[in-house]
Amino acid sequence: MSAAPDSRYAVLFEPLEIGPRELPNRFFQVPYLPGFTASGRPRVNAAHRAVKAEGGWGAVCTEWCMVAPDADPAPEQASTLLDDADERNLASWCAQVQAHGALAGIELAHDGANAGGESSRWPAVAPSQLRSDAWLFSEATPKEMERADIERIQAAWAAAAARAVRAGFDIVYVYGAASMLPMQFLSPFTNKRTDGYGGSFENRARFWLETLEAVRGAVAGRAVVAARIGVDQLGPSGLGVEEVSRLVGLADPLVDLWDVNVGGLANSDMDLTPSRVFEEGYSLQWTTRIKAATRKPLVTVGRLTNADLMADLVRQGKVDIIGAARPSIADPFLPAKVRAGRFEDIRECIGSNHCALKATTGHLACSQNATAGEEHRRGWHPERFPRLADTSPPVAVIGAGPAGLECAKVLGRRGMELVHMVDAEREMGGHLGWFGRLPGFQPWLRLVDYRRTQIEKLPGVTFVPGTRLEVEDVLDYGASIVVCATGSRWSADGINLLTHAPIPGAGAGLAHVLTPEQIVVEGKRPPGPEVVIYDCEGYLTGLGIAQFLQREGCRPTIVTPVHEAGAHAFHSGEGPVMRREVHAAGGAFRHGLRLVGIEPGGARCEDEFGGAVEIDADAVVLVTQRLSEDRLYRDLLADPDRLAAAGIEAVYRAGDCVAPRLLPDAIFDGHRLAMEIDGPDPATPQPLRRDDEEPPTYPDGPGAGIGREALGLGTAG
Q: Which CATH number fits domain 395-487+629-675: 3.40.50.720, 3.30.1330.60, 3.10.20.600, 3.10.20.30?
């Protein structure tokens, strides 16, 4: 039997009737794209979702599941439910999720004008022949839908819903948020029709209402009919709370569950709410107002990780169900840990949005949870770890940054009896220790806080602070296994992606040339207020340093060789907002310029046509390329005989010491090394399990980590 939750949180574990189904609790993993599809890679996807059901989420949903060929969102990765093969794959997906007692939901969708069509080669269709404002997803102009197109897509939606019921799904979505086809009909920004599907609000709502009616008929009371709708507060669509509430009122008899979020594709930073920009629950000020328009249960999101806030929202009747995408990725066992009162064991989402960035560009990754997306193909589980056959070899992990922290934690979870994590600094964190001091990035330090708490619980792991180890120190330390997790540094000579060479006039020790670490860690300041920040990273560091220096009274000009500063942060949602903040505080931007020389008093640049551009500046900050701090690793390997004489059996490296990468990649690297340290070649990742191979079985037992009994879940079944 599951242990009873603390009375403060009991409301979160009350069941709720939703149409023909009962939700076992108030935790709902809403649909999101992981970069691998439930129809194309069902075992990878199902294992990723099923672990959430195991962790206590009452409902678990797929990603976008397209109902027709012209819904194709490529290059985005979405599922399809078009034929018998899709139905079979999704039936297997359902079974794995439902085995843990959760309801299985499917998000049936059509991209409309946003459809890229790169895979299907079908033209996009839309209410009117207007290009999507989500230019990233499609550069094509859509076909204006004829009546036959409307009827075809509504019939396809109903057919997909019927297939979903046969596959075993408990919840079937008609998805309209994020500027999908139903919202394109509803919005006067995208709908310029003059027939019965355009003009008045009632006409623009007709496509959505007819589609809901068709789906409800196909489902015939055998599954919950859910609708997801977005309250768009920043984009040009003009669909605010009043308009959305009006649609909800019209559609309420056809819907069993409303799923409400904010924003569209063109302003997705509203929905993603990165912690750098938005506080937890920021969107609730709009989404909870929809509750007054419906008599049906309402689920909403908001990067909710605080159990007290969750319970208050349900208790006060502002929402009925707590929805989550990112928090469920960071900790699939969040509900179980809340129920058991193990709040210190929750891997709280840091809101970095690396999950969205990675899923959009490849395969899901999470800064907090290295196992996300690896449940099937690597056999990893977020809470259970295979015990090492030999736990006696002493291990020295040198470096307490993200990779070192994760490696030491996992080695401890695997039962290693003597792990010393040694760092030259007094505190854990590595580069996050200073990056977290940039304006707004303090929530990222939760990554360090969680690992510190877990490591303190592990009897075999000890943190040794304020100790810098050189080669002789390592040889004398007594370790059998050495892991160099010594991180990386920003290049002081400006080596960059354009020339692969230093920038003339750059160099360490110059008063007018600085790196991010020199500014934040060493306290070095520009000799005057006018500062050029040369951003070749294209992510967050240049923008963050600009804001840090603005607080010091400097006037930064961000120079970048690409089309915009922080361009890579489009996918994670910080870039547009941070640029606006830098601009509002007096900062300037110069795009498409290459820095070709630095001298006291200025920076020499070239534009894309080779024209000379001079910028007056008191200092230049180089955000060009990070270089691995791997000297210790290389020096240790230089003399194998001395290693053997010292009893060191193996030397590995992890994280940025291997190659500077994004935060979730460093975490992954430390985790992977610890999970494969007893393999044939720990330095080289083991082959991935194919989707058609049998799924893994997860270990349990002594040293395995947090098991079901400890979390109050009872035995598996």
A: 3.40.50.720
Q: What are phi and psi of 443, to 5 degrees?
A: -60, -25
Q: Does the pTM of the predicted model rise above 0.85?
A: yes
- The alpha helices in 171-223, defined as continuous H runs, are 181-186, 201-219
Give the residues across from 612 on adjacent strands: 606
Burial of 459 from C-beta contacts in 10 A (0-12 / 13-18 / 19+): exposed
What is the per-residue pLDDT across 71-87, written as a single tens digit (0 to 9) for each?
988 777 889 999 999 99
Helix (H, G, I), strand (E, B) or coil at 503: coil
Tell me how far CA of residue 684 lies from CA of 289, 629, 669, 672, 689, in angstroms.
52, 20, 11, 10, 15
> Residue 231 and residue 237: Cα distance in Å, rounded?
10
Residue percentage of the chain with pLDDT more than 90: 79
Give the pLDDT confidence of 268-315 residue by residue, as tens digits: 445 677 888 888 878 888 888 899 999 999 999 989 999 999 999 999
- Type of residue numbered 641: D
Mean pLDDT within 223-240: 80
Overall size of the chain counted in residues: 717
The whole-angstrom separation of Cα 390 and Cα 449 is: 29
Domain range annotation of the chain: 7-361, 395-487+629-675, 492-626
Architecture of domain 492-626 in this structure: 3-Layer(bba) Sandwich (3.50)
Mean pLDDT computed over every residue of the chain: 92
Distances (CA, A) of 263 to 81, 240, 283: 26, 10, 9
Q: Extract the runs of DSSP E, i.e. beta strands, from 263-418.
A: 298-300, 321-324, 395-398
508-546 as b/e, with b when 16 or more CB fall inside 10 Å? eeeebbbbbebbbeeeebbeeebbbbbbbbbbbbbbbbb
Confidence of residue 319 (pLDDT cuts 50, 70, 90): very high
For 635-689, the pLDDT digits (tens) are: 999 999 999 999 999 999 999 999 999 999 999 999 999 999 999 999 999 999 9
| Chain centre distance of CA 74 | 19
Using DSSP's 3-state secondary structure scheme, residue 484 falls into strand
Which residue in this structure is represented by tokens 């010491």? 657
C-alpha span between 229 and 323 (Å, rounded): 14
